[in-house]
Amino acid sequence: MSLFKRKNNTQQTVELPVDIDSNKKQSMRYIAPSLILALAGILIASAVIWLNQSSQQQQHAEELMATWGSAYTAAINQHLAFIQADTKSAADNPRLAQALQDSNPIAKRNVERSLVHRSSAVDAFLNPLGQTTQDHKRNAPINFAALDLLKRAEHGPQPWPEALQIEQRWLLYSAAKLKDAQASGSLLMTYDLASLLRGFPVFANGQLHVVLQQQFPNSPTQILYSSGQQPSDAVTQSFSTQHPNWTLIISSPEQALHPASSQSALFIALGVAALGFLAALYLMHRSLQQQLKADSLVLYKTIQDWTQGKSLKPYSFNLITLNQIIHKLIHSTPTPPSAQAKKARASAQHNPTADNASLEQTDNSFDDSLFQALGTDILDIDMLDDDVFGLGQADAATQTVTAALDVPSSIFRAYDIRGIIGTTLTTDTAYWIGRAVGSESIAKGEFNIVVGRDGRLSGPDMAQALIQGLLDCGCHVTDLGMVPTPVLYFATHVLEASSGVMVTGSHNPPD
Questions:
Q1: Inter-residue contact 433 to 407 (CB < 8 Å)
Q2: pLDDT tens, 379-432?
Q3: How far apart are CA 88 and CA 187, in angstroms?
Q4: Which CATH code of 3.90.180.10, 3.30.450.20, 3.30.870.10, 1.20.1250.20 fits the domain covering 37-258?
Q5: Top-level CATH class of 384-503?
Q6: What's the whole-model pTM score?
Q7: H or E stretch including 90?
Q8: Of 92, 94, 91, residue with least CA distance to 127
Q9: Residue 114 and residue 482: Cα distance in Å, rounded?
C-alpha cells in the first residue's frame, strides 16, 4: 500500500532556509579532478596534433624541395642536351672537314667564324687530327683542358661539356668529332655559360639559394652559378644532373618551407575547442551544484516536516537517488516522532517516575528510526505501487499480491522448500520465496542468481513467479529454462552468478 501517487501537475512550494548557502571553495575542489583531467586531455591532444603537424610539415618541406630541385635539374639537363646537339650538328657539316683538308688557314678561319652565329656561342675551333697546339689569343683560349677535351672527342664518344673560367667569365667548352670518313679532326665550340643559364625557373620564394657546382676527381669544387643569399637557418638539399661532374644545391629558409597560416589556424581552432570544452564543463558543474543545493534544501524541509509530525508532501527531487531515499523514509516511519512524544508525555503524567526514561526512549527511537531510514541500502528501496519501471502502468492485478505472512511454514525443510502445487505452494508463495532469496543474496553481496526448472507442467508458472520476486528485489536473474539439476550447478561455476534456485518436483504419495 503506497502513501501517495505522484502526479505530473503536483504543485510544490518549498520555503528554503536563508542560512544555507553553498561553499564555493569546496565545490571547486569537486571540479578540480575533472579540470585536471580535461587539461591533461587537451595537452595530450595538442601534443598529438603537434607531432602529426610536424611530420606533415616535414613531408611538405621534402616535397617542396624536390619540386624545386626537379625544376632546376630539368632546366640544366635541357641546356646540356642543347649544347651537345648543337655541337654535333655543327660538326656534321661537310664544309668543316673540307676546310681542314685544304690546309688553307684563311678558309679555315672563315668557316670557324661562320659557326659563331649560333645561340650563346663565343668561339669555334677546328682542330686537325692529332694536333696539340695551344692558342691563348683567341676569344676562347685553347689550353691543355681544351686540347684534352678534343682528344677525348676524337678517340671516343662525344664527351660532356666542361666549364672553364677565363678571367672573370665562365665559358662552356663542347667538343665533337667531324663527320668524315677519313676522321680528319674535331670541332670545339665555346658558349657563354651565363647566357645559357638565364632561363632558369623563377619561384615565388625569393629567399631561395641555388648553386650549380662543378667538381672533377682530385680537384676543388668550382661554383658555376649562384643566385640568392645563403640563409642562416637554411634547409639544404643536393640534386644530381645528367652531367657526372655537375651538382645542384638548393637552400631555403626553414620558415619558408612551413606554412605559418595553417599552423596558426590549427592552434586557434584547438584553443577555441579547449575553451569551449572548459566552458561546458564549468556550466555542467554549476548546473549540478544548483540541483544539489535545491535538493538539499528540499530534503531539509522534508525532514523538518517529518520531525514536526506533519504529513510528508510528495516533493520531487532533481536526483533520482534522493527521491528513492525519501520514499524509503516514508515507508519505514509509519508513526511520526511527535506522536510518540505525545504518548510518552501522556504516560508520564500517570507515571511520573517513568517520565525521564520514556522521553529519553522516545528521543532515542526517533534518532534510530531517522538514521535507520537514511542508512538503508539503496538496493532495498521498494517501488511505489509496485510500478517497477516508474511508468505508472502497473495494473490492479499486478499490484495485488499475497502478503508474505500467508506463506505456510510447513513447506520449509532442512535442505529445500517442498509443498503441494495449488495448496501449500502457489505462484504467490513462489514470488515471496523469490523476494526472500533475493534479499538474502543481496545482503551477502551476491546480485546475480541462476534459475532453472524441470519439465513438469507447473514448472513455468512457478519459475516465472520466483524470477519476478528475485527481480523485484534488485537481483540480476539468468533464466536457464528447462534443464537438469546438474546443469544449474555447472552454471553457478562458470557464469558470473554463484547462487542458483532449481524448481523441480517429485511424486508425492497419496494423502
A1: yes
A2: 333 333 344 333 344 343 344 444 555 778 878 887 788 888 888 888 888 999
A3: 9
A4: 3.30.450.20
A5: alpha beta
A6: 0.44
A7: helix 24-91
A8: 91
A9: 113
